[in-house]
Amino acid sequence: MIDFIAPVAAWFAAIIETIGIATITLFALYALYNAATRMLKKEESESVYQELRQSLGRGILLGLELLIASDIIYTVAVELTFETIGVLAIVVLIRTFLSLTLEVEMSGKWPWQNNK
């Protein structure tokens, strides 16, 4: 049974990682397209810029969550050693820090602050 789980988990991790990369790429392309069309319509550049940053931030956050999920699946199910757990911990810390700073950048407040 264990011989079956590792290749399947590696396959699912690769699929989720691909979806994470595609998510970031598609959000970036959509945000750039949307910003370009709005600029051609002569909309206010400050609002276009803010929406571009919001869209890019949302895409990166969602993509990072998927990439973290794929790393966890791969490490736990395929290559569970102290070294890979340490690398996973560092990667998750870095990606969590990036997610947190992107959230603060997009919303202007810490995620645990009230929406008031």
UniProtKB/TrEMBL annotation:
UniProt keyword annotation of Hydrolase present: no
Pfam families: DUF1622
Listed transmembrane segments: 12-33, 84-102
InterPro entries found in the cross-reference section: DUF1622 (IPR012427)
Keywords from the named record: Membrane, Transmembrane, Transmembrane helix
PANTHER family in the cross-refs: SLL0939 PROTEIN
Name of the featured protein: DUF1622 domain-containing protein
Organism: Marinobacter vulgaris
